[in-house]
Amino acid sequence: MKDDPIKTDAEKLARFVQLLPSFGENMEFANLFGAFDELAYNRFKSEAKTALPEDFEAYLRAYNGGLPLETDHPFGFLFSMQTNEMEASLLSTLHWPCPPGKDNWLPIGRDGAMGLFFLSLNHSDFGVIYSCFAWSDETTGELAYESNVKQVADCFCDMFRLKKYY
After folding, report:
1. Nearest to 105 by CA among 137, 152, 35, 69
2. CB-CB neighbours of 93 under 10 Å
3. In whole angstroms, what is the distance from residue 84 CA to residue 35 CA?
4. How many of the other CB atoms lie within 10 Å of CB of 88?
5. Within a domain: residue 3?
6. How many domains does the chain have?
7. Residue 4 lies in a domain
């Protein structure tokens, strides 16, 4: 643990990347759908017209959807970067409808219930994580969203409650 608090986003990212290997000792779903797929990521960047935030990209490259069992986080499932299982792919979620009035949000994971987590790909709040409840509309089969959308973290690395390490 550092004695001095981290003051910049760059320092926070560096600390997160430094801590990533320690997650892997007790990981669930790591590379469940294969390793990080560079071709899928290039396709994603082309379709999204942006790269992923550095912390989320580093995490995907290390664990591609895996979840650390001994780290406090709200995820029940994270989507991954691959092409062999499109239902679990960020390439497929890139084309899901966003909650009403919210554009360029990427569904990145789910909690244990009906909550979806979104990563903003907008310039104004790039990398911010939001959540809201979602379900399949019985009449249309389309995703329907609760109107109560909440910001849950300033960035992906904050989702692991690692502030005590900063």
Report:
1. 152
2. 20
3. 10
4. 19
5. no
6. 1
7. no
- In this prediction the pTM is 0.86
Could you tell me which residues come within 8 angstroms of residue 163 by beta carbon, excluding any fewer than 6 positions away?
Answer: none
Number of H helices, E strands in the chain: 4, 8
CATH number of the domain at 159, please: 3.40.1580.10
Tell me: pLDDT of 121 over 60. yes
pLDDT for 24-79, tens place per residue? 777 887 777 788 999 999 999 999 999 999 999 999 998 888 888 877 888 888 89
Tokens of 72: 């406090």
Per-residue pLDDT at 1: 39
CA–CA gap between residue 56 and residue 65 (Å, rounded): 10
**How do beta strands 27-28 and 143-145 pair?**
unpaired
Domain assignment of residue 2, yes or no:
no
163 or 148: which leads in pLDDT: 148
CA distance 119 to 128: 6
